[in-house]
TrEMBL record:
Coiled-coil annotated residue ranges, if any: none
NCBIfam families attached to this UniProt entry: Rossman fold protein, TIGR00730 family
Keywords per UniProt: Cytokinin biosynthesis, Hydrolase
E.C. numbers: 3.2.2.n1
Taxonomic path: Bacteria, Bacillati, Actinomycetota, Actinomycetes, Kitasatosporales
Natural source organism: Streptacidiphilus cavernicola
Family listed: Belongs to the LOG family.
Pfam families: Lysine_decarbox
InterPro entries assigned to the protein according to its UniProt record, in alphabetical order: LOG, LOG_fam
Protein name per UniProt: Cytokinin riboside 5'-monophosphate phosphoribohydrolase
Keyword Transferase included in the entry's annotation: no
Reaction catalysed by this enzyme: 9-ribosyl-trans-zeatin 5'-phosphate + H2O = trans-zeatin + D-ribose 5-phosphate; N(6)-(dimethylallyl)adenosine 5'-phosphate + H2O = N(6)-dimethylallyladenine + D-ribose 5-phosphate
Length: 174
């Protein structure tokens, strides 16, 4: 499977990187391909290193604006013209999407893939690996949207939550 991963471009504390490394190792051991932003920055580089070490394939989708941080050693590196095209390619190349801890860039990416799924433009699994309660605020907001009639279909059809790497991968593979 091609598994697109969105995650932070910053170097993070071990309490965040440990479960991410577990997930990335499993992704590689299961013979999947990591599709990601193609950067060596922070957690993005950690994920790529771990998948590669576990025998997985790497497909980066980068953009000129951020090319100074391009990961060296990917099996394939796609360069896109702008961030919008990059998000489209990251989704088009995915069989499933897994979202790790991240900041505004990650939030932008997950919001877009869930919004497109809401409109029926794809039906790929979208899974958030929610460790350290990082996505608790987002979960509460999404649950309120569902409870108060802001979503056209059940929330659990749009996005799944996992609290460890093995569960996140199982949901992506389902
Ligand atoms: C941190 C620095 C440069 C970041 N370089 C990036 N390279 C590739 N992709 C990136 C970069 N920064 C953001 N992205 C995309 O957004 C997501 C991460 O953003 P967040 O705000 O950290 O959550 C990630 O999934 C990428 O697709 C300076 O050295």
């Amino acid at each position: 499977m091609n598994i697109t991963v969105f995650c932070s471009a910053f170097a993070l504390d071990e309490r965040y990187t440990k479960p991410v490394r577990e997930f990335a190792r499993l992704l590689g051991e299961h013979g999947h391909t990591l599709v990601w932003g193609g950067s060596n920055a922070g957690l993005m580089g950690v994920v790529a290193d771990e998948v590669k070490a576990a025998g997985g394939r790497l497909v980066g989708v980068n953009v000129g604006l951020l090319s100074h941080k391009t990961y060296q050693g990917a099996d394939e590196m796609v360069m896109t013209a702008d961030l919008a095209e990059r998000k489209a390619v990251l989704l088009a190349r995915a069989d499933a999407i897994v979202v790790l801890v991240g900041g505004l860039g990650t939030l932008d990416e997950v919001t877009e893939v869930v919004e497109l799924k809401k409109h029926g433009l794809h039906d790929k699994p979208v899974v958030l690996l929610d460790t350290e309660g990082f996505y608790e605020g987002l979960r509460i907001q999404l649950a309120r949207m569902e409870a108060e009639g802001f979503l056209p279909r059940p929330l659990n059809e749009l996005v799944g939550f996992a609290s460890d790497g093995a569960t996140a991968l199982a949901l992506a593979e389902a």
